[in-house]
């Protein structure tokens, strides 16, 4: 049974969502602020997050989640500002639903995201097999040992395959605590280590490309 975490400070709305999703035989966890939510993150298969919470922003929580796992995130919010929608999606949110919304539409979106996520947990790309659920990685069926930082970096790049991920976004998502104090050289070092483990010729990378002046891109 899949477990869904609802992070919503409106008790009535949260209970309505809970009853609607329970009808699909999901297990439901409820949190009404960021402090409560962090206790349940490791138990969730999908997370519904309101952007505006009493003790902070759901956007910041999404950044934390996506830096540590591949659990899908759907934003539920009354804020339909384009800038917030773009920010949420750039942080890795899988969908974005603006209040008020139909519970039938919400159920359909939840099921669609879970289907996509189940298919994307294990990715076979050329000589590689990446299992982001269990964080195990292979090249030509030979296991590749990676640090937590390298795992996060690979996840971000592969999740955005064939699109440039900026240096700022990589730093923000990987070093969530104190990103402002991270030396940019730390990212370059991590990229080089990842290339050394994945590329046949790290000096002429086939998969992890540098996009000069912007960031990096996984090409597949």
TrEMBL record:
SUPFAM superfamilies: CheY-like
Biological processes, Gene Ontology terms: regulation of DNA-templated transcription
Positions of the Response regulatory domain: 3-114
Gene3D superfamilies (alphabetical): 3.40.50.2300, 6.10.250.690, Winged helix-like DNA-binding domain superfamily/Winged helix DNA-binding domain
PROSITE patterns cross-referenced by the UniProt entry: OMPR_PHOB (PS51755), RESPONSE_REGULATORY (PS50110)
Organism: Congzhengia minquanensis
CDD domains registered for this protein in UniProt: trans_reg_C
UniProt keyword list: DNA-binding, Phosphoprotein, Transcription, Transcription regulation, Two-component regulatory system
UniProt-recorded name of the protein: Stage 0 sporulation protein A homolog
């Amino acid at each position: 049974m899949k477990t869904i975490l609802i992070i919503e400070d409106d008790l009535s709305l949260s209970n309505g969502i809970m009853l609607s999703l329970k009808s699909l035989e999901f297990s439901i966890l409820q949190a009404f602020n960021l402090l409560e939510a962090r206790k349940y993150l490791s138990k969730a298969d999908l997370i519904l997050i309101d952007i505006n919470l009493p003790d902070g922003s759901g956007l910041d929580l999404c950044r934390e989640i996506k830096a540590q796992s591949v659990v899908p995130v759907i934003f539920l919010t009354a804020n339909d500002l384009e800038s917030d929608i773009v920010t949420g999606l750039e942080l890795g949110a899988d969908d974005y639903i603006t209040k008020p919304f139909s519970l039938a539409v919400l159920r359909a979106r939840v099921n669609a995201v879970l289907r996509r996520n189940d298919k994307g947990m294990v990715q076979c790309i050329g000589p590689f097999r990446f299992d982001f659920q269990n964080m195990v990685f292979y090249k030509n069926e030979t296991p590749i040992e990676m640090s937590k930082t390298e795992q996060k970096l690979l996840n971000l790049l592969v999740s955005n395959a064939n699109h440039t991920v900026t240096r700022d976004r990589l730093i923000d998502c990987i070093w969530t605590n104190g990103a402002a104090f991270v030396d940019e050289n730390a990212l370059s070092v991590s990229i080089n280590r990842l290339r050394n483990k994945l590329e046949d010729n790290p000096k002429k990378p086939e998969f992890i490309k540098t996009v000069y002046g912007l960031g990096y891109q996984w090409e597949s």
